[in-house]
Amino acid sequence: MGDSHDWDDIRAELHDGDDDAFDVERARTEAWVSAWHLAEERKRLGLSQRQVAELMGVTPGRVSQIENGDLDADEVATLSRYARAS
């Protein structure tokens, strides 16, 4: 068997020292994971994107953007409305 590494070793090897870029990518990944969970919850509840959009007061296209993680950090209010609608 080859050498084993833990995640800290791999992260340290790949990290180029640009903490700002690292933080941006981490936030984007976390937004995508959260968005996936929102979409899964909507589906579990049997709601369409159109239904959620009507409850939120946004377009179905915006719901699609939210579920694809296409959010700015200042869109927490939109997410809050999404959660209440679902």
Automatic annotation (TrEMBL):
Pfam families, per the entry: HTH_3
Organism: Micromonospora mirobrigensis
InterPro entries in the cross-refs: Cro/C1-type_HTH, Lambda_DNA-bd_dom_sf
Coiled-coil segments on the chain, per record: none
Domain HTH cro/C1-type: 38-69
SUPFAM superfamilies registered for this protein in UniProt: lambda repressor-like DNA-binding domains (SSF47413)
CDD domains with a match to the protein in the record: HTH_XRE
SMART domains assigned to the protein according to its UniProt record, in alphabetical order: HTH_XRE
Record protein name field: Helix-turn-helix
GO-annotated molecular function: DNA binding
